[in-house]
Amino acid sequence: MKHERPRARAAMEANVTELWQIVEALQVEVGSMQTDMDSMWLMVGAILVVLMQAGFTMLEVGSVGAKHTKNLLIKNILDLAVAAVMWWAVGWGLAFGKGAEENGFNQFFGPVSSFTRGEEFVDEAGNYGTENGYSWALWLFQWSFSGTAVTIVSGAVGERICMSGYFLFAQAMVGLIYPTVVRWGWNSHGWASAWSSTRDDLLFGCGVIDFAGSGVVHATGGMAALVMVVLIGPRLGRFSDGGAKNKMERQSVIIETLGAFILWVGWYGFNGCSTLYITGNSHVAAKAMVCTSIAAASAALGVACASLILFQHVGPGQVINGLLSGLVAITAGCAVVEVEGAFLIGTIAALNYLGCSRLLELVRIDDMVDASPVHLANGVWGVIAAGLFASQEGYSASYYSERGSMCCGLLYGCGPRQLMANMVFVLSVLVWVGLTTLAISHGVKYMGILRISNVVERMGTDSAAHGGSDMPEFAKNLLSRIEALAAKAGCTDTLEGGESCGPSGVHSMAPSIASDSAPQRCNSPLFEGGRKTMF
Length: 535
Hints:
Blueprint: H1 4-63, H2 69-96, H3 131-156, H4 163-186, H5 214-232, H6 253-272, H7 282-311, H8 316-330, H9 339-362, H10 371-389, H11 392-398, H12 417-446, H13 454-459, H14 461-465, H15 473-489, E1 492-493, E2 499-500
Antiparallel strand pairs: 1-2
Helix pairs in contact: 1-2, 1-3, 1-6, 2-3, 2-4, 3-4, 3-5, 4-5, 4-12, 5-10, 5-12, 6-7, 6-8, 7-8, 7-9, 8-9, 8-10, 9-10, 10-12
């Protein structure tokens, strides 16, 4: 009996040791599975956000004149390609690169670490381990956002931007302008970031609430778009000499609507997957998607109702932009607001869009797809709204529970500090993006490659630089008949390139180059400035 007890104890200890080893192995396996699930979550999000590029393309193709279709398609494909290369080369390093974080300078600008190769993603022990997969997935997800920011500009300047000049700007956008804003708002060491539980120097004690990028992505892209369209000027014929707005050719409202639905679907990845982790955060992701749906719906309905009341008619283009305005506005606060807050944010976004779109017309600014009213105006509104409507419960679940009672929105009893942080951040974004875009665009304009020549604009960039138009035969026949009627009616081009007609009121769609004398070089099929340029 005396010898049996030690044996039993030894056997029990061996069993406990073995059991503990099994538990540890299971913990490692569960942790690895969680990492795999979180990585997959980000990869799915990246796929959905890249899918949004198809939505933007369809939206722009539907809005553009048929003779510029190929040009726009090529531009949107290369947008994402330029974003990928520049994000790999310098963008990721500026936004998330590791450096001497205690240095205050790095709260504003990241180290210029060129060409992401994976050394940045090693684990704490310096090993290229399982965590590395999540880091690559995060890189992919963040790259897809950079492509969205630059594509916003593409639609605004459609039909008259010089492609070579545009891509010089796109490189600067993804290589400098956008990643700097990302560092400010989303890097845990950024001066405005709320993504830290240990820092005691957060902006107004809270940091900015911009969960998925109303400010970081949309206000950035929208501000750049506004500066570009002001500098490049309106399309030929957009405004008459008296300031009246002329209707421009739009290719297909059906294609526009298809693009809007693709964007709506992609936005669930944009907002929902911005939790960055799905394990333990499924409730946050699901609520973000619900709030995204409600804001989009209330904005679309708001534009439809307001248009009927104010203008006695409603067009699909208005409803589409209303829908997108709601999506943009909810992006900052999708995870922290309650559903009723999302409804109000979307409703106000609708009125904000209509007012800003009308304002652009009054000051004769030609934004082909209303990118600045949608993305700039409602990107700014979305950041402000997050500082108003963030609930304590929403903030605690999405950010840090210890700050929930201090950093919720003004309308939920937490005082003005969160609203102040959000307003300082978004104003800083507007100043940074506005000044850098203005400087770069002026440089491109000085090089003579900002805007295509009047000849090419009337002829169409497809014919001038992309092998001709792919317009269907029936459309070509219809165009020929319209041109014949216009010639018979005695229509002539105005000095600004618009159309003026005889008594019949038929407008000419025929290209005319008789009055072109502007010293533009880009994309002209003619010898101008001593050389022939096609791209």
